[in-house]
Each structure stands twice: as C-alpha cells, then as structure tokens.
Write a structure and sequence with these properties.
The chain has helices at residues 7-17, 21-43, 47-69, 79-97, 102-107, 118-121. By secondary structure, the chain is an all-alpha fold.
C-alpha cells in the first residue's frame, strides 16, 4: 500500500497522481463507459456487457497514466489502495463533472497547469 495512512491523505495523493487535466478527462470517459455499460447490462439483462464495460473503462483510465501522466495507477499498491482508488475515482468524477473539483486540487497543491507544488509533491 502507499504510505498514506488516512483516506484524506490518500485522496490528496490521488489528486496529485491525476494532476494533469487530460488525465482526469480520460478518467471521466472511462468511468462514463463503466456507468453506461452497467445500465445497458441491466436493460438487456446481459452480464457480459457489464464485464466488458468495466474492463474497457479501466483500460481507458489506466492508459491516461501511461501515456499522459507517466505514472503508475495507485490502485496497484495493494487491496486498500484499490478500494480507496475506486472511491477516489468516483469522488473525482462527480466533483469534476459538477465543477467542484478545483478547491480539492488546490488543497492537494495542484495548479491549473497540472504541476504539483514542491512541498506537496513528496507528501
């Protein structure tokens, strides 16, 4: 697991790992794919749509880390990190699409251009 001992500390680290706007936007696309696939799976009563949608959504989000952010998804740090990453991804999604993510990004030391302030980068 990461060195973050509380969810709040993890959340701030999660935001720093998603500091670039393009990374967050690609995550929003991935999460939307997951939501749409879950709805379609229920409507068509076909479980494999959900499985494919979840896989496609995660691959989409992970691609942002490797191609844009150039880091490793924090969910790979262990079981607790995986759960907290899921929670944080959904939190980032809903705050982002509602226009309320800015204060949290500033709290995490993330600037408008996606850079992380020196004192926050190591924490």
């Amino acid at each position: 697991m990461s060195d973050e001992k509380t969810y709040d500390a993890f959340w701030l680290m999660y935001l720093r790992a998603h500091s670039m706007r393009k990374t967050r936007l690609i995550h929003y696309v991935g999460i939307t794919i997951i939501f749409v696939s879950l709805v379609l799976a229920v409507v068509y009563e076909t479980w494999w749509i959900a499985v494919l949608g979840i896989a496609a959504g995660y691959v989409t989000a992970w691609t942002a880390h490797w191609l844009v952010q150039h880091n490793i998804p924090v969910m790979f740090a262990g079981p607790e990190a995986a759960l907290w990453s899921l929670m944080s991804g959904l939190r980032m999604y809903f705050l982002g699409i509602s226009g309320q993510l800015g204060p949290q990004l500033r709290r995490a030391g993330v600037s408008e251009d996606g850079t992380v302030s020196e004192d926050k980068a190591l924490s």
